Amino acid sequence: MSAAREYGLDDQYAQYDQYGLDDQYEWARPPVGGWTADDLDRLPNLPPHTELIDGSLVLVSPQTNFHSLAMRLLEYTLLSLAPEHLNVIREMSIKLDKRNRPEPDVLVFRADAHRGPRQTWYHPEDVIVAIEVVSADSEARDREVKPLKYAKAGIPHFWRVEENDGFPVVYVYELDPATDTYTLTGIHHDELKVTVPFPITIDLTAINRRPPYRPN
Q: Whose CA is closest to 204, among 172, 156, 161, 158?
């Protein structure tokens, strides 16, 4: 018997029927001490983009149009500007420690950190920029929890992307190695222009435009 039936919560859990879950379904129960970073690669049937924060699984909500378009704009532009020793990828996790494996929306990482087609995470020392696009369900994580963890892990740059009237506003942070905390170096509307970790100019108003196709 499922927990819902055992405790008489039929009405409360009836909503799960829409997901094809019968009354025998049981959600994954964490072990003593919580899940570990390696468990994300072993647990069956986890939803895509599940993260691990302080030993707890974090399930993400469906992406909005803004979220998807902001990721596309940042990924495409950064990939076109990054020097050869760096690469760009979206939605890959970072194994910060045993109990934390978040998944930034976009990463700039060292190209030599690529370890093959079955790779599922990067070391924090591989990451140059971690970017989070804030969603309604991720505000506290993206504004408070994750920046603290990224800074403590030594990731030198963090960008937080907020939505304002359908357009991105990018908050750019740089690590202060003396305190292992981030310092806000700029708030960018319309255009993001920075010189570190490499020269970057991004037209933030282009979020709704289709990126031009560049054949090899």
A: 161
Q: Exposed, middle or buried: residue 73 (CB in 10 Å: 0-12, 13-18, 19+)?
A: buried
SS3 content of the chain, % helix, strand, coil (to 5): 30, 30, 40
This model's pTM is above 0.70: yes
Contact 55, 30 (CB under 8 A): yes
| CA dist., res. 69 & res. 110, Å (int) | 24
Query: Mind listing the pLDDT tens digit for each residue in 24-46?
Result: 656 677 788 889 999 999 998 88
Sign of the CA dihedral 173, 125, 111, 208? negative
Q: Partners of 172 in the beta sheet?
A: 159, 186
